Amino acid sequence: MPDVILRKTVSVVEEIYHEGGPVAEIPHRRGSVLAIIRNPFAHRYEPDIQGFIDDLRPLGLQMAQKLVDLLGGPDKIEGYGKGALIGEGGELEHGALWHAPGGYAMRELLPVCNAIVPSTKKVGGVGARLDVPITHINAAYVRSHFDSMEVGCNDAPRADEMALALVMTTGPRIHSRSGGLEAADIIGKDGLR
Questions:
Q1: Cα–Cα dist 122/165, whole Å
Q2: Which Gene3D superfamilies match (predicted)?
Q3: Per-residue pLDDT tens for 85-116?
Q4: What span, in angstroms and rounded, lies between the C-alpha atoms of 64 and 114?
Q5: Of 21, 103, 143, 151, which residue is the least packed, with the fewest Cβ within 10 Å?
Q6: What number of other Cβ atoms are within 10 A of residue 176's Cβ?
Q7: Cis bond upstream, residue 2 (ω within 30)
Q8: Is 66 helix (H, G, I), strand (E, B) or coil?
Q9: pTM for the predicted model, two decimal places
């Protein structure tokens, strides 16, 4: 398969102290790492693309490690998500190649994570933005951790590029009070509850 050609990465960390309510002593943190790579399948239909999944695995691990470090270590992470923006010369299926390398990279670095990593993808032009969904790492039904983080880059993805994203959070939304399953009540056997 083709080599992974990385043009640049973009890392963002948000520290959220309040959203109009009481100010938190410890801010809620959301972080993302976005990797802009060449799309080896741009401008043509390629029937056999699955081999590129394995080529993306080292990049996924590098990005996940950087994100874990930015947010203070694996024991701080409570939420995650992933996504892919595909440049106009590519197709939506190219974004699906990120599912395993992105998701398994985060799961490999976190001590316990039973929930599936939520995902999104789309084809877009230069400057496109993507809302990456976030759920709790051990139970997808934990409502306090339903969140998203917008990712993007002003000069990407170009027509022959992909922008691959990983997102993590350190806890629930800053003023979570919508009920439902609480993190303290997770049984953690099925990745849902």
A1: 12
A2: BB2672
A3: 999 999 999 999 999 999 999 999 998 899 99
A4: 17
A5: 21
A6: 18
A7: no
A8: helix
A9: 0.95
